[in-house]
Specification:
By secondary structure, the chain is an alpha/beta fold. It has a seven-stranded parallel beta sheet, sandwiched between helices. Helix 1 crosses helix 7, helix 3 runs parallel beside helix 4 and helix 4 runs parallel beside helix 5. About 40% of the residues lie in helices and about 15% in strands. The chain has one domain: NAD(P)-binding Rossmann-like Domain (Rossmann fold, 3-Layer(aba) Sandwich). It contains seven helices and seven strands; from the N terminus they run βαβαβαβαβαβααβ. The chain is globular. The structure holds nicotinamide-adenine-dinucleotide (NAD). The site of nicotinamide-adenine-dinucleotide (NAD) has 31 residues, from helix 1 and helix 4.
């Protein structure tokens, strides 16, 4: 097992990619701190993890205070955090213009202040708060660590709303800046930029939008959560011990850079 003796904190662990990643890391021997805005879903994830000694709690990652409290709880439970999967995120918020089709050219001008800033609060501030609080534990424990930030192909090329694209590009900036700063502590920081993956987030994407995307994808399919869990395991484990400040994009070839 690749992660025996390690503790992984996974945000957004109650659904989709976060749940699948939690399961994969647990199968490799990690103890999981599964956190989510909806505590009942984090508890459900706990119920399907292999091995013992896992922990679930609730957090709104958009709140610096709530994240500080959550990491304190995880720290007192385990006394170490070796892996952070900064995965919690949303692709739309009320007032973000997503009720207008992208093709109409009206999304951006219909995006309210609140629609833009509330998405950024979760996808960008949330990533930063979780990373900062986890780094405090990682630096104190002097065990090194691996931080995996969930970006998107929207951070690499034009995909999704302005707010979503901005948030996922910001995640790449956070990844590189902290990778440079934290390398001296043996803490690696990388990002995953998934393509279209079948999760509750993408379940509502209408068929007419999905079909051309699959056609434009060289591997001719959408991704499965397992495709992302494999990438997360690679970045979490010592198999990637000389990799930091990078992104990997499991996207079937839809975006090539
Ligand atoms: N599914 C895709 O195609 C895809 C593609 C690229 C990137 N991503 C990214 O992957 C991550 C996971 O997406 P998913 O597809 O599993 O979505 P999902 O909607 O299935 O899961 C997201 C999880 O994040 C949690 N969450 C939302 N806001 C939160 C908050 N404020 N605090 C704590 N938890 C919160 C939700 O409760 C949910 O459990 C997101 O960051 C998303 O942007 C997904």
């Amino acid at each position: 097992m690749k992660l025996e003796g390690r503790v992984a904190l996974v945000t957004g662990a109650g659904s989709g990619l976060g749940r699948e990643i939690s399961c994969r890391l647990a199968r490799e021997g990690a103890r999981i701190a599964a956190v989510d805005l909806r505590p009942e879903t984090a508890e459900e994830t706990l119920g399907i993890l292999s091995g013992d000694g896992h922990f679930a709690c609730a957090v709104d990652v958009a709140s610096g205070d709530a994240v500080r409290e959550m990491v304190t709880q995880v720290d007192s439970e385990f006394g170490q955090i070796d892996i952070l999967v900064n995965n919690a995120g949303v692709d739309r918020m009320p007032g973000d213009g997503s009720d207008k089709l992208l093709e109409t050219g009206q999304q951006t001008i219909h995006m309210s202040d609140e629609g833009f800033t509330s998405l950024m609060a979760i996808n960008v501030n949330g990533v930063f708060f979780c990373l900062r609080e986890t780094l405090r534990v990682m630096q104190r424990e002097e065990r090194g660590g691996s931080i995996i930030n969930m970006s998107s192909i929207a951070g690499l090329s034009p995909n999704g709303n302005v707010s979503y694209a901005a948030s996922k590009a910001a995640v790449l900036g956070i990844t590189r800046a902290t990778a440079r700063e934290q390398g001296r502590f043996g803490i690696r920081v990388n990002a995953i930029c998934p393509g279209v993956i079948e999760t509750p987030m993408t379940a509502g994407v209408p068929e007419p939008m999905l079909k051309p995307l699959i056609k434009a994808t060289p591997l001719r399919r959408t991704g499965q959560p397992d495709d992302i869990a494999s990438t997360a395991l690679f970045l979490a484990s010592d198999d990637s011990s000389f990799i930091t400040g990078q992104w990997i994009s499991p996207n079937g070839g839809l975006v090539m850079q």
